[in-house]
Structure formats: structure tokens, C-alpha cells
Amino acid sequence: MIPRIIRITAFAAASLLVGQVAFGWGHEGHRLVARIAARNLSSIARQKVAAILGTNDAGLESALASAATWPDEIDKSQTQTALWHFINVAVSAPFSVAGLCPSHNCVLDRIADMQGRLAANTTGFTLPVVPVPNRPMTSQELAFLVHFIGDVHQPLHAANDGDRGGNCVPLTTPLVHPDGTMTTELHAVWDVDEVLAVLAALGTEDAATQTLFQRFKNGTKVTQATPSDWTKSSWSLAKTAVYQKLHLPNHTAPPGQCAPGIQSVTVTPAYLTANVPTVERQLLRAGIRLSRVLNQICAANGCRAM
User: Fold this and answer.
1) pLDDT tens string for the chain (306 positions)?
2) Among 60, 156, 205, 251, which is most buried by a count of CB atoms within 10 Å?
3) Within a domain: residue 54?
4) How many structural domains comprise the chain?
């Protein structure tokens, strides 16, 4: 597999056409969200989700984690899905999503679309080209839903400061990973490095999944609310934990463009560590809310494998 940060670089040219590089929580974060969700599914939802993914109960958690990363593995340009992963809500104005989802091409409307299709067993979902790797129709819809609920809990997938959700903000010093890959812009800090900081604090993916889910079992409250509420919460976090904490000035730019004069920013290990509790809460919230959505739409006649 091509390292994720290198894949961001390879995708950068195509992303200029669609407005934003969008990888949500990255491979690690999306897997954590899906694995937390799998542990909170009802028995009927487990059966139906396993059938959609072509696995059994024992393989459900692993299969759902793999499905969660699929929307970032396909070619977003050819499948015309790049805009589905985020919604650019300006941090310099009161929260509003009005007019930000033309032709339903934003994460909020695509969550509703996939949720509705799975609940109603709607047929006929196709992408403009066959995705590689491919999945059966219902498995595609499920993978998108799992992924997008994760995406909308990443603060920079719900915020914009004339910087394409932080994609236009270079780092003064790249963050170098043990495998030699690097993070070079602010958006990827929250996609990747903040989740790596969580894993550094909690241990392996298995350990982090168990620790976060156990917090929920021990009484940590997760209100369900609505996708619009989740978006507003992420937007608020972007304002405080990203733009204010890093002292970034306000910019404006047309959709999909970088404002002129954006300066580089310094991201320190202390900054990453300080955000770990926030990122842990967002990952847990995403997982539990996803599980409740799946439990609801699979409870009656929905979630039929097709």
C-alpha cells in the first residue's frame, strides 16, 4: 500500500479541480471509528451488516474497519466523490450550511443519501466509473456511510478559513513519521498526526478501540443529535482547537481556492498532545453515533444485502 501522506501528494493535482484534499481521519482514525461502532451494534444490525460485507459475526469488526477506509482508496476524481467528504463552513461567520452543498455534493447530504438508501433498500446506486477496488452496491453505500460519519467528526472537514479546510496552510517544519513519510500541511495534521498521538497515548489499534469503547460502557455520555449538530460541533472545535489555538488570521477565498497571503504554521509535539483528549472524544462520538444510525436503519426491513 502507498503510504498515506505520499498518497495525499499524488492526489494534490487532481484535488485542485474539486476543491479540497479530503481524507477524514485517515486510515487509522476511520478504522477506530468503525471498530467502536461494530462493538455497539444490535444483534440484528450485526447480522445484516455482516451479510452486506460478505462475512460472518466473527469477521464483522475487521470487515467494517476495512470498509471504512474504502472511500479513500478509490479514485475520487474518476468516481466524482471528492466533494462528498466535507463541508466548508466559514469560521469567520456564524455557523450556517445554507448554500454549501450544491447538487448534494457535501458530506451532510451524502450521509442522508446513504442512510436513506440503506434504510429503504433502494436499488440503482452507481458511480460514474467502476471503483477500484470494487464492492457490491450495498457494500459501497455502507462503506460511504461509515466513512462519512467519521469524516464529519474531523474538525477540518467542517470548517474553512479561505484555506480549503487547512489544506492551504503549510507547516513551517514537516512532521516526519517513523516510516519516512511526512505531513506538510495543516489538514493532514488532523487527519493523521492527531490520531497517531492518540495511538501513542493508548497503544495499538486494538488497545485504543478497547479503551475508548470501555469509556462508553463505563458511562461516558454520547448524545446522538443530528448530522447537522455533529457538523456544528466539529466546526466549533476547528475554531478553538485549530484556528484560535494556532493564532491563524481569518482569510477569504472563492470555493476551492486558497486565499492569498496564507503563512506557514508551526505544529509542535505539545500541540498534538494537548489535543489528544479532544480527538479521543470525537472518535468515540463518531463510533457510537454510527452504531446507533446502523441499529436504527437495520432494525426493520432495511440493510438488505444487494
Assistant:
1) 233 343 333 333 333 333 444 556 789 999 999 999 999 999 999 999 999 999 999 999 999 999 999 999 999 999 999 999 999 999 999 999 999 999 999 999 999 999 999 999 999 999 999 999 999 999 999 999 999 999 999 999 999 999 999 999 999 999 999 999 999 999 999 999 999 999 999 999 999 999 999 999 999 999 999 999 999 999 999 999 999 999 999 999 998 899 999 999 999 999 999 999 999 999 999 999 999 999 999 998 999 999
2) 156
3) yes
4) 1
Instruction: Give the dihedral of Cα atoms 89, 240, 35, 140; nearest 10 deg.
Output: 10
CA distances from 109 to 129, 147, 283 (A): 21, 13, 21
Could you tell me where the DSSP H helices lie in the chain?
4-18, 26-38, 43-53, 60-73, 76-79, 107-120, 137-151, 186-188, 194-202, 205-217, 227-237, 269-274, 276-298
Contacts of 122 (CB under 8 A, 6+ apart): 116
Integer Cα distance of 150 and 86 in angstroms: 11
The CATH number of the domain holding residue 70 is 1.10.575.10
Judge whether 288 lies within some domain: yes
Separation CA 135–CA 125 (nearest Å): 12
Residues with Cβ within 8 Å of 248's Cβ and at least 6 positions away in sequence, in order, are: 161, 169, 242, 265
> What's the rounded Cα separation, in Å, for the pair 98 and 89?
9
Q: Has residue 305 been placed in a domain?
A: no
Print the domain residue range for 201. 4-298
| Domain-located, residue 124 | yes
Hey, what amino acid is at 56? N
pTM exceeding 0.90? yes
